[in-house]
């Protein structure tokens, strides 16, 4: 099973548990710490991935490292260790955060532009897409991409809204080509 599939399943299961027990915010905060540990602590990861270290020792490390965390997180980490899926943990956390944001009506957007957008321009984009997509909030990350001649390209989830000059020219070209057939 792919890491993406594994991460989505575990994230969805954790999210359901968190909702049932009304601990979504606590779980989200603790999962961010878990992600940081797994991404930034090489020795920790090497220990968990070492083939000669017993599964029991690995689980003891999980217990010590995340002492005081919600039991759902610790149990999930132990299951992932049992199944040798430790590498999926950062993706699980990211997918969990996405589920939390979706439940709150919040989306993440990446806006590609030829220059850094001003605060007012970002606010205008946020307002337009909040109304268009019926969201409560939109978190915008601006990426400067010099290959864009003008306008902006907005990526929200798996959807891209291309308002660039290059995109418009490509659409005009397709219309001309299809009209000549």
Automatic annotation (TrEMBL):
It comes from Aquibacillus salsiterrae. This protein is part of the stalk that links CF(0) to CF(1). It either transmits conformational changes from CF(0) to CF(1) or is implicated in proton conduction. It is a peripheral membrane protein. SUPFAM superfamilies: N-terminal domain of the delta subunit of the F1F0-ATP synthase. InterPro entries: ATP_synth_OSCP/delta_N_sf, ATPase_OSCP/d_CS, ATPase_OSCP/dsu. GO terms for molecular function: proton-transporting ATP synthase activity, rotational mechanism. This is ATP synthase subunit delta. PROSITE patterns: ATPASE_DELTA. Transmembrane segments: none annotated. It comes from the Bacteria. It is found in: Cell membrane; Membrane. The keyword Ion transport applies. One of its GO terms (cellular component) is proton-transporting ATP synthase complex. Residues 10-37 form a coiled coil. Keywords: ATP synthesis, Cell membrane, CF(1), Coiled coil, Hydrogen ion transport, Ion transport, Membrane, Transport. Belongs to the ATPase delta chain family.
